[in-house]
Design brief:
about 100 residues, single chain, five-stranded mixed sheet
Length: about 100
Amino acid sequence: MYDVLWRDLNTGGDWWTTNGVPLALCCDWYVSGYTGYPSTEPLDKLLVTRAEHRVLICQHRYAGTVFDRFTSYIKQCEITKKRDRYLFLCYVPEDKKFHSCVFVA
């Protein structure tokens, strides 16, 4: 489900239990094609995790459109909690660089 899931484990007992999830990362290189309207499907995976930090890496021609769509979607989602944190990284080949957006609900 996630490309990277960093768990804080309690290994002191008979069972290893999860104390928390500091980081969940998803990489969905093409969000709804290269130039199309950005899909929120890769974001859904991050919305359901209770990770302290959520990271989404993608590629799209219009990074600003991706960031606007994702932040709007998070705001409208009923399971979003205050202080949920997201980092979006969007690679734009024409610029040959990553653009970033930090969003805190």
